[in-house]
Specification:
The complex is a heterodimer of chains A (705) and B (155).
Chain A (H helix, E strand, L loop, with lengths): L9 H11 L7 H6 L2 H6 L3 E4 L2 E3 L5 E5 L8 H13 L6 E5 L4 H4 L9 H28 L6 E4 L2 E4 L4 E4 H8 L28 H5 L15 E6 L6 E7 L1 H4 L4 E6 L4 E5 L2 H10 L1 E6 L6 H11 L9 E3 L2 H6 L3 E9 L11 E7 L2 E5 L5 H12 L6 E4 L14 H13 L3 E4 L2 H6 L7 E9 L5 E11 L17 E9 L13 H18 L4 H14 L9 H14 L10 E9 L2 E12 L2 E12 L6 H20 L5 E2 L2 E2 L18 E6 L17 H13 L12
Helix pairs in contact in A: 4-6, 6-7, 13-14, 16-20, 17-18
Chain B lengths: L1 E7 L2 E7 L5 H8 L18 E4 L2 E4 L12 E3 L11 H8 L9 H14 L5 H7 L9 H18 L1
Parallel strand pairs in B: 1-5
Antiparallel strand pairs in B: 1-2, 3-4, 3-5
Chain lengths: 705, 155
């Protein structure tokens, strides 16, 4: 198993960086073999912030973006290693701390890390390789273009000479940095596109302190917080008499919005928190889900003055239609519920803040903390642990701000931890929504009108106006109707797509059945229309869309059915990536059993085949579980599901037995992958259930008892 | 506060804690064995799964006062070098995504294989009820089967 760094303590971190003279970090095990003396004297080749090579041949690659389970701590260094031309098994991978100057945008969101860094990071590796070759060529007094590299060595074919990168490190550092470097031809890739294991496997599987929740610092107090029990309420007053009697409780402090209990261990902090007598006061409306649903029902009957998209005349097409198909789809509020509950370490003293914790947006977290504390950003430092899931929850920096404020008031280093109940009641939820579709079938039995009115909580453009089949239908209109609420909503894995794909891809299936067309053939026919006779802007690549539909049809033997087994299909485009999915199910005691899901993906060049496949498999399980079981509801502002006993997550027994993933072979630059496989799966399985039972599911979660 | 002596990973530890403290927080906060994770606190998710003798228990809901002389094994004590057949199978199948639940998953699989060295898919469904929010179930299932095969070959 591969080594990578664990949670290096601040003290060790400072010692190592100062000894190495800047920018160098080493893994624990390697560190044990290197004495302080040898490191102090080492000339180091570090042509940029992403990599360094020391004379002993230790090659260190930095992983700049937060690792939330999407695999970038493995995939981004793979890009470096490919262009540097080193043996993957001999490099050390380190998670970079936040440093805007060095690493630019260090965020995890929008399936964007690989997309945005594919070329720049490869260049960082190629620059280093160029300089290593220049150093070798100068040493041997031969032209640089006679030299090649292989697995961490520069070779001169003519003379048979060979020097390791370690041997060349000192001299390479004196070589000029090239302005332009040639990147490898994809046909020469040795690392990109291969199956590479998660670099943290060993740490994960042996219980190393990799995560924010595992932070332990000298003098640190464990902290639990009492937060409002409902949206629309805020803290009025509290009595901590009983709390202070609990052994281990050290302090109780108040910030603007919350009361925090600080203790010598988590359990004392929790008992202390639970013993607080807190009074809350109403500050706004106390809203209920039933009110939102009633409002949606009303809103989807209302035409907007400002359609999101309006091709032809959808209303006229509906009026003149031979047949109108009308369906209303509904999706619930969801919680992110990352397995690692919200937490953060903060040590705020003397106008400086030292932070360590899970965030998808370290830059924003630093800015928000600086603002909340009234200090400059330069006085806030932030280390990035491995994170127990993100799913969009950690695009908010509320955890960092809350911990920093508490530490500041308490004047102590603290680790703030939310219980699962806190986490589920204090989320920024996936908004619920309702979608009213009308399709016009004309006298030629063709779909020539489409009108969607979408309503969702706090959502401006819920209708995803440019989604397929826009471009393929002569009269196409979408309206979005927002409903403003004081319930916190926010991005959840594949925002907007995660809701509308279910509605849209189910409705397309309805239309196909109504027209007595095969659902796959129907999509292909619409794509041909968009290609040959586009209506308005076509926001997707038709050939790429077809590439995945054709592939999944082949993978799943679409059109051939085993007795007792039923198939459903959907295809979807998001984050510049195309996916098509088929589920094969049977019905057992009225419940679907998902035997296999097939997924074809066109995401450009695959970087890590194992990681990419894992993301797709996971996204499918994630999307299916949330269509099947999970729902958050509010009663007078209070969340009714507080833990996994009522917020039911997908488990092994209901997960597909297998998920087969194939990627369309291409060397085009990579597109997003953390999210795109999630949106369509709800419709895929619901369409299979329709094939099996004739029952159309228009409201999820479909497995709600 | 009360004093308890418990055996964790073949070592005896004496801790002074509140009697109702769940084993999870004794492991994490007193013994600094943080590989065992907190996920729900109500024995639903299994992130805190450890072995008591040969059985999987959920440490978040198991008071330290009830441990007595039973032997506790955590992920840190499963093998000397991370080479238990289940750990190796998890690496071989490259199971983890975020990795947070996986120590609990591994411990649940170890307990299952102790009881049933050749588990069927149904056995896995019944025994492996831990939540993986990243959805790595397909690979977990394959890893359990792989560990089952490699344990047989190794013995």
């Amino acid at each position: 198993m591969k080594q990578s760094t664990t949670n290096i303590s601040r003290r060790n971190f400072l010692k190592i960086t100062s000894l190495a003279g800047g920018g160098m970090l080493l893994g624990f095990e390697l560190l044990a073999n290197a004495t302080a003396e040898t490191m102090a004297d080492s000339p180091l080749f570090a042509p940029n912030a992403y990599l360094s090579i020391d004379p002993k041949g230790i090659i260190t690659l930095m992983a700049p973006n937060p690792e939330i389970g999407q695999g970038v701590k493995t995939a981004l260094p793979m890009l470096l290693a490919e262009e540097l031309d080193v043996d993957w098994n001999k490099v050390v991978i380190n998670q970079a701390d936040f440093d805007k100057e060095k690493y630019g945008n260090q965020s995890a969101g929008g399936s964007g890390a690989i997309r945005s860094r594919y070329e720049p990071i490869r260049k960082a590796g190629a620059v280093a390789r160029h300089m290593l070759i220049a150093a070798a060529a100068a040493t041997w007094n031969v032209p640089a273009d006679e030299c090649t590299t292989e697995n961490g060595y520069v070779l001169h074919k003519g003379s048979g000479k060979k020097l390791s990168y370690g041997e060349l490190a000192g001299k390479s550092a004196t070589m000029p940095v090239p302005d332009n470097v040639k990147l490898k031809d994809p046909k020469d890739f040795k690392i990109i596109g291969k199956r590479i294991k998660n670099v943290d496997n060993k740490g994960i599987l042996t219980g190393k302190p990799l995560f924010g929740i595992d932070t332990r610092r000298e003098g640190m107090l464990y902290c639990m917080v009492s937060r409002p029990p409902a949206f629309g309420k805020k803290l009025k007053s509290y009595d901590d008499t009983e709390t202070r009697k609990i052994p281990g409780v050290k302090n109780v402090v108040r910030t603007d919005h919350v009361v925090a209990v600080l203790a010598t261990n988590t359990w004392a902090a929790k008992k202390g928190r639970d013993a607080l007598k807190v009074e809350w006061e109403d500050t706004g409306k106390l809203e209920s889900t039933t009110d939102h649903i009633a409002a949606f029902r009303n809103l989807i009957q209302q035409k907007s003055d400002k359609p999101d998209r309006n091709d032809g005349d959808a209303e006229k097409a509906l009026m003149n239609a031979k047949k109108v198909i009308e369906s209303i789809y509904e999706v619930p509020v969801l919680s992110h519920a990352p397995m690692e509950p919200i937490n953060f370490f903060a040590d705020v003293r003397d106008g400086k803040a030292d932070l360590y914790g899970p965030t998808q947006v370290p830059g924003r977290a630093i800015a928000d903390v600086a603002k909340a504390l009234g200090i400059v950003e330069a006085n806030v430092t932030l280390g990035l642990p491995r994170q127990g899931g993100g799913f969009g929850r950690k695009l908010r920096s509320d955890n960092a701000v809350e911990a920093a404020l508490i530490s500041s008031v308490a004047r102590a280093p603290i680790q703030m931890l939310w219980t699962r109940e806190d986490d589920m009641q204090g989320d920024f939820y996936r908004p619920n929504g309702m979608y009213r579709y009308r399709a016009a079938i004309n006298n030629d039995n063709e779909l020539d009108g489409w009108y969607l009115i979408a309503a969702a909580l706090n959502a401006g453009r819920a209708a995803a106006a440019d989604n397929f089949p826009a471009g393929a239908i002569a009269n196409y209109r979408t309206d979005s109707q927002g409903l403003t609420s004081n319930i916190q909503t926010g991005p959840w894995r594949a925002p907007t797509h995660n809701a509308i794909a279910f509605a849209e891809q189910s409705f397309l299936d309805e239309i196909a059945h109504e027209l007595k067309k095969d659902p796959v053939a129907f999509r292909l026919e619409l794509l041909d229309k968009a290609k040959n006779n586009p209506v308005g802007k076509v926001n997707y690549n038709i050939d790429k869309f077809k590439s995945v539909i054709d592939l999944v049809a082949k993978m799943s033997n679409w059109g051939k059915n085993t007795p007792g087994r039923y198939k459903g299909f959907a295809a979807y485009y998001s984050f510049n990536t195309y996916v098509a999915e088929v589920a094969e199910i049977s019905m057992q005691n009225g419940k679907p059993k998902v035997h296999k899901v097939y997924c074809a993906v066109n995401c450009g060049q695959v970087v890590n085949l194992s990681g990419a496949e894992n993301q797709v498999q996971g996204a499918i399980v994630d999307g299916l579980g949330h269509a099947w079981f999970t729902e958050i509801t509010f009663d007078k502002g209070a969340v009714q599901q507080k833990n996994f006993n009522t917020y039911k997550m997908m488990r092994m027994q209901d997960a597909p037995l297998d998920v087969e993933v194939q990627f369309v072979e291409t060397n085009e630059a990579p597109t997003g992958l953390g999210e795109p496989a999630l949106p369509p799966i709800a419709a895929v399985v619901c369409n299979a259930i329709f094939a099996a039972t004739g029952k159309r599911i228009r409201k999820i979660p479909f497995g709600k008892a | 506060m009360a004093s308890y002596t418990i055996t964790v990973n073949n070592k005896k530890h004496t801790v002074d804690v509140l009697p109702d403290t769940p084993l999870l927080w004794v492991l994490r906060d007193e013994l600094n064995l943080v590989g065992t994770k907190y996920g729900c606190g109500i024995a639903q998710c299994g992130a805190c799964t450890v072995l008591m003798n040969d059985n999987a228990i959920r440490a978040c809901s198991y008071p330290v006062s009830a441990v007595g002389t039973n032997k506790i094994t955590t992920i840190e004590g499963l093998s000397e070098n991370g080479d238990h057949p289940v750990q190796k199978a998890w690496d071989e199948m490259d199971v983890p995504q975020c990795g947070y639940c996986q120590s609990g998953q591994v411990m649940a699989a170890v307990a299952l294989l102790k009881r049933k060295p050749n588990p069927t898919d149904e056995d896995i469904n019944a025994a492996m009820s831990n939540i993986c929010r990243c959805g790595t179930y397909v690979r977990i299932r394959k890893a359990v089967h792989l560990a089952s095969q490699s344990s047989k070959q190794g013995s």
